[in-house]
Amino acid sequence: MQLKHVLEAQQFDKKMLKELFTLSDLMKKILEKGGSTLLKEKILASLFYVPSFRTQFSFESAMMRLGGEVLSTDKAESFSSELKGGSLEETIRTMGYYSDVIVLRHYESGSAKRAAKVSSVPIINGGDGAAQHPTQALLDLYTIERELGGVDGVVIAFMGDLSNSRSIRSLCYFLAKYSGIKIYLVAPPTLNMREDIIQYLKRHRITLYESYGLEPALEDLAKKVDVFYVTQTPVGSFGDRVDDYERSKKNFIIDKKVLKSMKRNSIIMHPLPRQDEISQEVDRDLRAVYYKQIHYGICIRMAILCAVLGKTP
Amino acid sequence: MQLKHVLEAQQFDKKMLKELFTLSDLMKKILEKGGSTLLKEKILASLFYVPSFRTQFSFESAMMRLGGEVLSTDKAESFSSELKGGSLEETIRTMGYYSDVIVLRHYESGSAKRAAKVSSVPIINGGDGAAQHPTQALLDLYTIERELGGVDGVVIAFMGDLSNSRSIRSLCYFLAKYSGIKIYLVAPPTLNMREDIIQYLKRHRITLYESYGLEPALEDLAKKVDVFYVTQTPVGSFGDRVDDYERSKKNFIIDKKVLKSMKRNSIIMHPLPRQDEISQEVDRDLRAVYYKQIHYGICIRMAILCAVLGKTP
Amino acid sequence: MQLKHVLEAQQFDKKMLKELFTLSDLMKKILEKGGSTLLKEKILASLFYVPSFRTQFSFESAMMRLGGEVLSTDKAESFSSELKGGSLEETIRTMGYYSDVIVLRHYESGSAKRAAKVSSVPIINGGDGAAQHPTQALLDLYTIERELGGVDGVVIAFMGDLSNSRSIRSLCYFLAKYSGIKIYLVAPPTLNMREDIIQYLKRHRITLYESYGLEPALEDLAKKVDVFYVTQTPVGSFGDRVDDYERSKKNFIIDKKVLKSMKRNSIIMHPLPRQDEISQEVDRDLRAVYYKQIHYGICIRMAILCAVLGKTP
């Protein structure tokens, strides 16, 4: 398997996803043996214009487990400051001399594509603005696939700030490739999924249900879903209407009561960090797989690094 | 030698200390040969909620000298910001997937223990609030042991801000294990050693003398001690009474005059960085061992990393 | 080839420069093969009191390509804060225990020499105040040598903020060693080259021409030069007179028109980052070598690391 860049969910077809997941399974075995020297002499540049410790450390750990080296900054922003000049393009072209692959987190939608246009080395999109976060979505999809045994026919509820979650945006692009998917959107009205994604899902014949997360509804919903995908509802997104926030937040909590209604073979996912959208009492339930996602994330990222560097075992 | 976590001085008994120091001697030899590959494929996560360049680089250098890799941040604080949510516990559980051992520096007393409770990998306390700094105290004890040939019967003067020095707190817990120890406490009244440690030392039959560092007293003291352990007296701790600070500071300076009164086989220690509590003219005296402490620190930390990872040579 | 420290341009004679460039050619070949393990078990400390991503990553990448390890901080400033105490000297002495070589970027002229005085390991000056930036100048000289086939007799125009460019200062010290050099200084009056360098060049019989970059002059100049060395003209340096800045900036732009007048075998250099002193339309011209400088920079820094560590292939 060989990839040039990893920029957005749309670049993957089902065959590629299957290949990537098989490669990730292999990486899981390499991790269990303690690592490999497959990427010896390769350097990953971790170029974070916005800090994101999970994404950054996940990639850096993945690179190290494969014997590679890491050049790292979470202050890339200061390189391209207006004071100093120096565009994203210039930074990317320069980094291409220092490293063999770049993972880029940037605050602007579309920046990963801009970077790929001028880069002499593979670009991995580590999240660009509110646009996409394809490697997070890949690990989410991989989690669903491996925990539920497949993606076709899955019933999934997205819950929280659906408007600003690029992980969920990217994941929707993936889900649209599968058949029989049903999606529940559970969000306060101001934070609902953006219209472009809703239209995209409809065009791909995904069944969509919208709901506003009143508590009895959540317990009813619990009976139907295979996946609860929960994300944060940041205070900031409510502006002055903090009361609205406090009121709505209570309707978006996965707790023991909700857990009771859930199917045995279902899972609760969260990209972390979380506040209190999932009660701590849920953590010990086997259906809570958010830490497993972290583990799957390293496997996926090891596979991606191998694929873009053309070094599969 | 195998350790699970390194959280506080109290967890070590004399037998363990002896074993650890023997292991550190071995590490000294490994350093002289240029390093080892004992910790190949292992990753240390350097998780600093408060920056501390000596502790951080000492551990990171130790890990590299043993062939291991390092994931590093001195901005861990921003991971768990209130804005983003994400507790210390969540961060620790997550880092456990990225690394094989975590060194944690945190601003809250007790945080290392909280971390150890949920961690899947060994936690090394790199300083938690004003509570403890066990690896600094271990290197201090190792310095005394190796420079003076033993710890029993040692006469030691602690000087400076004894109230807020977690290194001295931790060292006191260690000294209490030895016999015949005499301790002089030389601090301005507002910065004296906290009552819990004083009581602890008394319970363990350590002879304690308190003094307020008037200059003639310092020269008298110099004749009696085997160890002058000097620490900073930060300006901030005097609040508005900066005059008091300036006045008292003058009484807490180790200079040539004090040096003259000191025994031949005695040592001056300091955890660094220092301001002017030790005159620069003292640096060239063989009894000034503060840079040796740096060296002993790497040996001790190499030994600790080996011990918690179960990889002793 | 063995060097103790790399502190300033003046320490190199022509024989050493030739040796260093031959070593750099060798490093180029090592890079093409993917790297080497020449500096295995060695640790570079990247000690940046002022961030500089090109210099930092260039050295760190160079070290990794040679199999070495990197301890890195771009916040060294906070180690020596007044609050914490701890002088540059203390920090350097301490880092000498953690690493085998230190690259130091500091805001104060002369800091690299101060560091070298107390250091137990080689110090590489990565830029000190407005004084010098010898490794940048070495890569610039190496670029001229390799792109034009030699340095003697070269006609070079320096353009932009000549007053504050430590790279150009250092490069002038090198050029003074060669014969038949002609230098054009093209800068707004307030940003002209400092008198000490002008006197130094005159003493070494370098032919100097000064000009203020009126546009027609620039096209005339283009016909004469072998090298256009362009640097930023920062807004800040004009204080309140931003109008002056805007007016003068227009006269200091290398664009297609200037390109047309340039000789076939000439080059355009820039230490990057750039603002708009070179139009983007120039980038694709083969005479634009600013990205080649990045590549030469890694080779030079690999050679320097080998030379100070006494490990030449």
Description:
- The structure is a homotrimer of 313-residue chains.
- Chain A has helices spanning 14-32, 53-65, 88-98, 111-118, 134-148, 166-175, 195-203, 215-224, 242-249, 256-261, 290-308, and strands spanning 43-48, 69-73, 101-106, 123-128, 155-159, 182-186, 207-211, 227-230, 267-269.
- Chain A has 313 residues and is α/β, with parallel strands linked by helices.
- Chain A has two domains: 9-132 and 297-309, Aspartate/ornithine carbamoyltransferase (Rossmann fold), CATH 3.40.50.1370; 135-293, Rossmann fold, CATH 3.40.50.
- The first copy, chain A, has a five-stranded parallel sheet, sandwiched between helices. In chain A, strands 2-1-3-4 form a four-stranded parallel sheet, with helices on both faces.
- In chain A, helix 2 (53-65) crosses helix 11 (290-308), helix 3 packs across helix 4 and helix 5 (134-148) crosses helix 11.
- Chain B binds chain C through residues 34-35, 51, 53-54, 57-58, 60-61, 64-65, 72, 74, 232, 234, 236, 272-275, 291, 294-295, 298, and chain C through 41, 43, 45, 69, 71-73, 75-76, 78-80, 83-87, 90-91, 93-95, 97-99.
Q: Which terms would index this structure?
A:
11 helices; 9 strands; four-stranded parallel β-sheet; 41% helix; 313 residues; homotrimer; alpha/beta; Rossmann fold; five-stranded parallel β-sheet
